[in-house]
Amino acid sequence: MRRLPPLKRSSGVSTRRSSTSTPTVEPPGGLATALERNIEALAEQRRRDEASASAQDRVAQTITRFAGSMPFVYLHVALVGGWVLVNTGLVPGVRPFDPTFVILATIASVEAIFISTFIMISQNRAAAAAERRADLHLQTSLLAEHEVTQLIRLTTEIAHRLGIEEARNPELQELQRNVAPEAVLERIEDSVGEAPGGR
């Protein structure tokens, strides 16, 4: 029997498979380019919203931010504590000026009214921003749903031409239908109204 000559190994090419997998090349910054672009667009939109805010909105936001911080608590503890110590006669050499704490109660009530108003102004502005983000999310979701529907139609047509049995799945016909948002909202409203305790 004739023996076959041994195979010659090509120079510079190893026939042994590398035990380590090919490292994944990460984009600069560790995030995808599209994600980086989206983050920058959102940050830029937030900067524009802050720049377009009126003077009264900025004042209300500043006061609300300070009222929700620990320095605000420390300041009130110091003021109220000092007020109580002075008007209870615990500070030698200082004459009480509000022994019944009526002035303190009046100041606290007026302060609560103004702080509540500033908080409501900030909440209204935050609610308007949240509504805009919700509209953007809805439009993006509708666009994605439309694109997926078109992809399903295209894939199903290709499967039909290739004679793939799964292309006759009835669920694919259902998935190829575009979703009408108003119909979904009406169905949700009807379901809520029919539920126990509904309107």
Please describe what this structure looks like.
- 1% of the residues are buried.
- α2 crosses α4.
- The chain has one domain (53-193).
- The chain has helices spanning 33-52, 55-67, 70-87, 102-162, 170-175, 181-194.
- Helices cover 66% and strands 0% of the residues.
- Mean pLDDT is 80; it is low at 4-25.
What keyword list fits this structure?
single chain, 199 residues, mainly alpha
Topology record:
Elements: H1 33-52, H2 55-67, H3 70-87, H4 102-162, H5 170-175, H6 181-194
Concise summary:
The chain is an all-alpha fold and 199 residues long. It is built from six helices and no strands. The chain has one domain.
Query: What is the ordering of alpha helices and beta strands?
Result: HHHHHH
Gross morphology: elongated
Beta-strand residue percentage: under 5%
Structural class by sheet pairing and helices: mainly alpha
